[in-house]
Amino acid sequence: MEPGSRVGRFRIERPLGQGAMGNVYLAVDPAIERQVAIKIVRTDLTDADRRDEVETRFLREAAVSLVRNGETTLQEINRVTFAA
Asked: I need a labelling partner for 51 at 20 to 30 A (CA). Which of 3, 41, 59, 78 fits?
């Protein structure tokens, strides 16, 4: 994703990192001008055959990060479909 791109209401600022499941970006919630991190799951992991598995793993990872880091705030989880 390029800086300035939008994911829902969030504006992408820059990449923060990448892992086995996807990429993480620094973004801004323009409604409250707050920086957030957004994880975008790799598209090759989201085919119909594996979608439930990947979603379950993603949610489990989010829950674990909340337990490990008392400062992490999970604000929302959304599905966003990107045009090809």
From this structure: 3
